[in-house]
Amino acid sequence: MASPRSAHVETGATRRMLGGIGRTLAFMALVGAGTTAAALAPELVPARFNDGTDVDGTAVGTRLPVLLVHGLGGSNEGWESFLRAYERQPAWRAAFKPYTFRYSTGSQEVNADPAAPRSIPAVAAALRDAMQAFQDRPAKPPHFGFGGKRVIVLAHSMGGLVARSMMQEHAFRDGQRGGEKVLRLVTLGTPHHGSPLMDAGLALGLDTIAELSDTHAGFLAQLTWTNYDGLDMFLGRCNPWLAQLNNYAPATGGRHGRCGTVAANPLAGYYEKIVAYGTSAVQDEDVDSGAIGAYKPGSPSSLRATSQYLLSAYGRPYPNDGIVPMASAQFAGAPLAQRRAAFACDHRFIKRGYTELVRSATGTYFDTAFCSASSVTPTVPSGMPDGYAVAGSVFGDPGGIAGILRTHSQAERVFDWAEQAYAGHLQPAGARSDLWGGYIYRWYPATNAYVGVRDGNVYYMGPASNGDMQFMGTLAELAAQAQGAGF
Fold first, then answer.
1. Signal: present as a keyword of the record (predicted)?
2. Is the domain of 134 the same as that of 95?
3. How confident is the model over 157-169, as pLDDT tens digits?
């Protein structure tokens, strides 16, 4: 049998496949185009639109802070469509306040600044520091602190690994790991197992990928494939950092990816807090037939080329979004809270959305749509020019991202209200929210009582119910009651 190197790396077909699409194009989709001369110091701020105006100029109040973390070569500009949709959705605005975390990944800008982070854990440490600062700040404007609340993180691509590193590898001033400060992590196209595309670039002699894309190589090296699935990768390259970060996933066994001797990591993975979104195919362009309906654009040629490479170059197909295999984006093998799929999508669209042409009975217009949450039912057009189509999308579907954020926000309000309304039964000192078995819950150690939320209902279990699970009401009903009481 041919060795992996001779069978894969040195074949003329492989070189033509990747080289023929243009090396810059092959990686442009991952790293983005364009850089700035000076590094942006890592910064966490209340979200702003691209024109510099505030998205939400009010204190977090009884809502939850939601941190938006971009990926490699990305920027906060990529969250614009989501934030514009947020502006137009009263239910979203009532549930959470968005913050954005930005950092530099370009080689020129990072190399020009000795203080700039040069690895994913270094960026994660900067995120930890920024979160600590917002925990210490007053909640009222212009400080916009977190008000003592834990956060939800919504992260795209490498941003999900930044968040996971912060949660697992970094401690806050009180000694708690970052994962204790996070209620939920939602990842969009995150390479939890890396991507073979990065190995391909390195193996083909592109050891300094920054020369092609101006992306710092320190980040790229931590995005290579961990070989969690036994793919016999070539050249003996190893991604020890990601292998160690992932080593509690059952599918990895004791192998820790292809690194073999990576030491076990005793720290909790907080997998029960992760909802991982992925997509398995780039988007074909809809042909405008002139009939009533919505017409989506196709994925860019760079993503089409890299998608085909991942499907055909390894002796086994890797369904992917143009950059990240579906199995990696959904963190196969890890005991996650949920795995979700996005449709009519790719690595860019899953975060940014796309502009679609809509032909209706009353006229033709363009709006911004987001990837569909269903393979059967597409995202519903907004119904207006320059609108934002969220219904049926990964963001706006009842079980979608905004729904996840809203459920956590309502649960926290109900818990806070119950602690005041039933203080004698609960004795809330030392209580905090957690996740288990599909429940969002708080445990009250003084009384060994629980208040939990699952499937839209609220339950109590403790001495007042003789240890039995007791239905308290629906989450919607009790959240409205809590809000009416000032929570």
1. no
2. yes
3. 999 999 999 999 9
Cα dihedral: 248, 251, 253, 257 (round 10): -90
Number of domains in the chain: 2
How distant, in Å, are the alpha carbons of 258, 299, 302 from that of 383? 51, 24, 31
Burial 429-468 (b: 16+ CB within 10 A, else e): eebebbbeeeebbbbbeebebbbbbeeeebbbbbeebeee
pTM summary value: 0.89
* Calpha distance 80→82 (Å, rounded): 6
Instruction: Give the Å distances, CA to CA, from 249 to 232, 266, 332, 334, 398.
Output: 19, 12, 9, 4, 29
Computed from CA positions of residues 346, 350, 356, 359, in that sequence, does the dihedral angle turn out positive or negative? positive
Q: Is the dihedral of CA 340, 344, 345, 350 positive or negative?
A: negative
DSSP code, position 264: P
Q: Is 142 exposed, middle or buried (0-12, 13-18, 19+ CB in 10 A)?
A: exposed
Cα–chain center distance at 101:
13
Task: Give the closest residue to 278 by CA, choosing from 330, 228, 333, 331.
Answer: 330
Convert the pLDDT of each residue in 13-58 to its tens digit: 444 444 444 443 344 444 443 334 566 789 999 999 999 999 999 9
Residues 433 and 362 reside in one and the same domain: no
- What is the domain range of residue 82? 43-285+298-373
Closest CA to 261 of 291, 238, 290: 238
Burial of 100 (0-12, 13-18, 19+ CB in 10 A): buried
Q: Say which residues have a Cβ less than 8 Å from residue 52's Cβ, sequence separation at least 6.
A: none
Closest CA to 85 of 399, 428, 382, 453: 382
| DSSP one-letter code for 405 | H
Q: Would residue 19 count as lying in a domain? A: no
Amino acid at the residue 405: L
Measured CA to CA, the distance from residue 270 to residue 88 in angstroms comes to 33
Q: Please check whether residue 191 is in contact with residue 158, taking contact to mean a CB–CB distance below 8 angstroms.
A: yes
3-state secondary structure of 470: strand
Averaged pLDDT for residues 104-116: 87
One domain for residues 348 and 228: yes
Q: Return d(Cα 323, Cα 29) in angstroms, integer.
A: 7
CA distance 293 to 355: 14
Side-chain half-sphere CA neighbours of 282 within 13 A:
24
